[in-house]
Specification:
about 180 residues, mainly beta, 12 strands
Length: about 180
């Protein structure tokens, strides 16, 4: 008799009964994070939108999927903290660098780097998963600071958009950890 191959060897392991420590909040599970449903994307600029996935006001930090359906631009800015990016689809980069990111590419942005994020024309929309810590410091054409955008601005923008499209601010509040 042939032996039965059992690949999911963990099937008989019992889950942990008490998974959360007393003060822990539940995980944030979001199915189909880079959805095609545009209601979930908050207009960030005229050509780029953001789908919020996780927001931490106490850490001034958020995760999102940034999307542009065609050529797009996010205002010139720098981050005083690090930023991580993973490209899901499309094509994007910074005017200040010679690389162009496409699906599967990872980018680490060092603290204090100024750049101009652009989305290139591509058959697929640009969708990039970002982890943003701290504010974006807006820059003028000469690289001088002329404003900022932080997690509190992001929350207000997201709540207003979700109210406007009928998803409700509670959908944003559920992302706060």
């Amino acid at each position: 008799m042939a032996a039965v191959i059992k690949t999911e060897f963990w099937r008989d392991i019992k889950p942990i009964a008490d998974v959360f420590k007393p003060d822990a909040k539940p995980e944030a599970y979001i199915a189909n994070a880079p959805t095609d449903d545009e209601r979930y994307y908050v207009p960030f600029t005229e050509t780029v939108s953001s789908r919020p996935l996780w927001i931490s006001p106490s850490e001034n930090k958020w995760c999102d999927v940034l999307m542009a359906k065609g050529a797009g631009l996010v205002n010139r800015h720098y981050h005083p903290h690090e930023v991580f990016a993973y490209t899901i689809s499309g094509k994007w980069g910074y005017l200040e660098h010679d690389w162009v990111a496409t699906a599967g590419d990872f980018v680490y942005e060092t603290p204090g780097e100024g750049h101009t994020l652009v989305a290139y024309e591509h058959p697929d929309p640009m969708r990039v998963f970002f982890i943003v810590k701290g504010p974006l410091i807006w820059l003028d054409d000469n690289g001088a600071s002329n404003g900022h955008f932080d997690v509190h601005d992001y929350l207000a923008m997201c709540r207003a958009h979700y109210d406007k499209v009928g998803l409700g601010r509670a959908a944003i509040d559920a992302l706060i950890r």
